[in-house]
Amino acid sequence: MYKFIDAHCHLTAPVQSVENGGYICNATRPSDWSCVLKFAEQNKNVAPCVGVHPWYVASAIGNWAQDMRDILIATPNAMVGEIGLDCARDNIAMQMSVFITQIELAAQLHRAIHVHCVRAWDKIAQIFRTQKFTLPVVFHGFHGNAQIVKMMSDLCDAYFSVSNADTDKMRNVILAIPRDKILVESDKNMGIGTRAIIRTMAQIAQIKSISESEITQNALQVIKNGQIGTDAFIIR
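^ that's the sequence the OP posted. Answer follows.
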């Protein structure tokens, strides 16, 4: 029985090992791609993602897109993330260019994507209307509403990852997410948020009258879009 999968975490500080669950670890800029990939290679319960976060689009210089393509081809189980749009920042045109390039790479190489969105649902919706992306799209740190859940679910194979179920608003959000599209995350350094994830999984299961293992299985559906599937992903 799988314990849990942290659907969105990072490698922001040294980690010796993570043996208490599964982890989808997102890079945020080219300078940390190699660290995430190396750690995932050493820990088969870690699924790596490489991407350029909207906060760090200025780091997307030179041949970054070709470098990213080369990495994805060389690492068949790597997904694309963390990518997205953040309208709290003032460089949205650059963000959109980098975001679209990464979506196109993910589509070409058949990889799921992990998306950061801040006040940009209309822009992201328009991009997906144009791109017709058919692979899983994980909207991480989700705290939107039922209308956004429906809109994105109509446009793509949308999954929604939450980090808490402690408020009435979040309980209503959780109720709006389809049972086979809900994930749980820490958005913390790998392994740090284990206790919170286990508590949130239990809360989600109670709110939606589902089993905790269903939430883990949802994450595996995302992970298996890597071309070698779940065979290389081992939860210890």
